[in-house]
Amino acid sequence: MASASLQFFAFILALFGVFGDIAATLLPNWKVNADIGSNIITAITQMQGLWMDCTWYSTGMFSCTLKYSILSLPVYIQAARTTMVLSCILSAFGICITTVGMKCTRLGGDTDSKNNACFVGGICFILAGIFGLVPTCWYTREIISNFLDQTIPESSKHEPGAAVYTGFISAGFLLIAGVIFCSSCFKRQQGAWIYPPKQHHFPSTEQESNAGYSLKDYV
């Protein structure tokens, strides 16, 4: 019962991680630049994401421009696109596989098959967490290095946006969920190896008595 509750808790974490991963991939505020002028009417907030750049004006207007050209983008943005999409795909696969392999569900067949399914789903969550953590770290490093560069003007400097923090939290949820799923299955397999099923042997006296009866029959 405890393992089933732990798996259900890991599944909830994985769901939050999947939704956060998808949201971080689609949100346009990976980089935020607040450029407030002397007049409040001209105050703007510029946001840059993986797929589009958006500008929010203090008057309430909001406009976005898609990044159509892929080769013109910096390397870290191209890598972030690829890894975040892979993270979303792997986490979705992990949700489907662990739904079958969880102990509280009636899918997946016998116990060994469900344990294997949970282990594979945990590996998917761990890989998804790694693929989600790498681009957020790389993106944050680029933002910080450009912010500390004295040659870059103040108006061109950015700060990490909400999408970066969402990516960090989602990657942490996926990693924790994957570790819980894999460790729960590993404990069961290890217990089976340490305590193998008992084999029943017939007593030697019964075998000897049976042999004796057969000899009497021949006499």
UniProtKB/TrEMBL annotation:
Membrane-spanning intervals of the chain: 84-105, 117-141, 161-182
Cell location: Cell junction, Tight junction; Cell membrane
Span of the signal peptide: 1-24
GO cellular component terms attached to this protein's record: bicellular tight junction; plasma membrane
Keyword Phosphoprotein among record annotations: no
Domain of life assignment: Eukaryota
UniProt keyword annotation of Membrane present: yes
Annotated keywords: Cell junction, Cell membrane, Membrane, Signal, Tight junction, Transmembrane, Transmembrane helix
Membrane topology qualifier: Multi-pass membrane protein
MF terms in GO: structural molecule activity
Purpose of the protein: Claudins function as major constituents of the tight junction complexes that regulate the permeability of epithelia.
Similarity comment text for this entry: Belongs to the claudin family.
Name of the protein: Claudin
Organism: Rhabdornis inornatus
Taxonomy of the source species: Eukaryota, Metazoa, Chordata, Craniata, Vertebrata
